[in-house]
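[Discussion] Sanity-checking designs against the backbone

I'm trying to build intuition for which residues belong where. Below is a structure token string of 297 positions. I'd appreciate it if someone posts a full sequence so I can compare it with mine line by line.
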């Protein structure tokens, strides 16, 4: 019953949006016949496009597809009943269709206006060349760590004990008694212990200064001496190091094109709005908003 309700709700949503059961002149597979009407594969695909992933997965099965088509047929039954009972002559129907006409025509008009907005390959390349700094990839380090945590207000004895423990763990790792990853899982006080201490890649400014300085100074494969930070003592193992670089044009050109196109579309719409306001008078009947005083603190 629950899935039946979901199917009905989805079908009703699409039907009310005006997306489904429109006159279909395309030659398409007929999935159901309801009086003079049909439910086609195109109709089915239209409803599927509005489904949530979990719903779409169910409707993709033979059982789910049949359930959806049955409910689409049920919706057509109500459509036919409403037509036969002259609901198209009611004020509510006329008001709804008038409102729908506004939305459809506004959408079509905007689509037509925006169809002229294009971005050339030359414009994309020029933007890339003029904004090289935006495509710089900073130097980064991939590291794992083992943290022996010490509270900020701990006395010197606890700090000395933590350093001694970190030093012993490092010594055992270097002697081959335990791997860095296993030691992290066993001894670290950081949540990263579940990943063997792996912190992934990070750039300058993402870690506390003492940790960052040690990580960037350590060679790949090496393990640092215990490093003191506000959190305690860390043993750092660097597993990768990437120099600063620049994103290749081919990697970013599609994103640049989309960014430039969106800006052109905004500018185009703004220009047309200004033009249309000269043809059609616009009055906003709400009170004017008070502007904040420039010298108000």
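Best answer:
Here's mine. Compare freely.
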């Amino acid at each position: 019953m629950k899935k039946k309700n979901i199917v009905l709700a989805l079908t009703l949503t699409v039907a009310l949006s005006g997306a489904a059961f429109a006159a279909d002149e395309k030659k398409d597979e007929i999935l159901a016949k309801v009086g003079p009407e049909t439910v086609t594969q195109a109709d089915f695909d239209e409803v599927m496009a509005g489904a949530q992933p979990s719903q779409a997965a169910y409707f993709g099965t033979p059982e789910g597809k049949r359930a959806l088509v049955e409910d689409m047929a049920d919706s057509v039954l109500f459509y036919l009943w409403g037509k036969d009972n002259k609901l198209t002559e009611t004020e509510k129907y006329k008001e709804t269709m008038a409102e729908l006409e506004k939305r459809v025509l506004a959408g079509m008009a905007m689509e037509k206006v925006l169809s002229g907005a294009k971005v050339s390959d030359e414009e994309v390349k020029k933007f890339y060349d003029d904004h090289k700094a935006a495509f710089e990839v900073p130097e980064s380090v991939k590291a794992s760590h083992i943290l022996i945590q010490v509270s900020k207000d701990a006395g010197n004895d606890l700090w000395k004990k933590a350093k001694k423990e970190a030093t012993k763990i490092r010594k055992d790792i270097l002697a081959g008694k335990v791997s860095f990853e296993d030691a992290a899982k066993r001894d670290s006080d950081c949540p990263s212990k579940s990943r063997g201490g792996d912190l992934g890649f990070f750039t300058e400014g993402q870690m506390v200064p003492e940790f960052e300085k040690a990580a960037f100074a350590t060679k790949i494969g090496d393990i640092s001496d215990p490093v003191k930070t506000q959190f305690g003592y860390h043993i750092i193992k660097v597993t990768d190091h990437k120099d600063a670089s620049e994103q290749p044009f081919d990697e970013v050109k599609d994103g640049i094109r989309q960014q430039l196109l969106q800006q052109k579309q905004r500018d185009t719409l703004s220009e047309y709005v200004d033009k249309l306001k000269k043809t059609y008078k616009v009055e906003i009947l709400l009170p004017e908003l008070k502007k904040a005083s420039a010298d108000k603190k």
